[in-house]
Amino acid sequence: MTQDERRMFLIRALLAENHRYQGMEIPTGVQQQKRLLRALFNVRMPQPVTEEFLQVQDAYLQEETRRKGITDIADLTPVEPGLYLWQGDITTLRCGAIVNAANSQMLGCFYPNHNCIDNCIHTYAGVQLRAACAELMARQGHEEETGGAKLTPAFNLPCDYVLHTVGPIVGRWLTGRDKARLASCYRSCLELAERNGIQSVAFCCISTGEFHFPNDKAAEIAVRTVKEYREQTHSKIEVIFNVFKDIDLEIYRNLLG
After folding, report:
1. Going by DSSP bridges, is the β-strand pair 150-153/161-166 parallel, antiparallel, or unpaired?
2. pLDDT, tens digit, for every residue of 60-94?
């Protein structure tokens, strides 16, 4: 199959799963088709899927990521021993694990084509990721608490694993409890990575954006917590501070010298 044929196969298969989509017209433009496919991925509940679907989906998503360009941690230059700063799309990063800023349901973002990191990670990992998270949550029996961490395979992403953590949602004022919970997100991810033999972790800017944690304060907590963890535990785990926005790049540059 060509990439165009894979995309059409996936769209038709996802439309056929739901009677409400019967008769929906598939756009002819490539970008419109990509948006439709992503939206269908985003709203799909965790449910069984055929082996043929997975084979086509996996080939499609891996090729899409290859075309975007994959960055390997081995090609990055540390800003200091064991610490990296990298601006880019975290779904294209090849390392031990990337961190997903999840919500308490831990099932990914259901809003079609939303730009949050939760949506991006679930989209390019494939439908297996939502299914894996649903299994974790069913065993747990309750929503994920703020500040903890869960580990899943990365499926079609170039990294090996995804660490899912729920950051604090900041209200009108930033509180000490918010700061403590954010620090807990970083520690929990590092501890879980260490227990599973993961040698490198890429952190996104947890709780900024949709969760309204001030970018500068969040970055200060991230850098301080990671450095303290490495010093106190003598950990050799490598950490990438991944940023997407220019404002966060500038903040981290100032903090890391």
Report:
1. antiparallel
2. 999 999 999 999 999 999 999 999 999 999 999 99
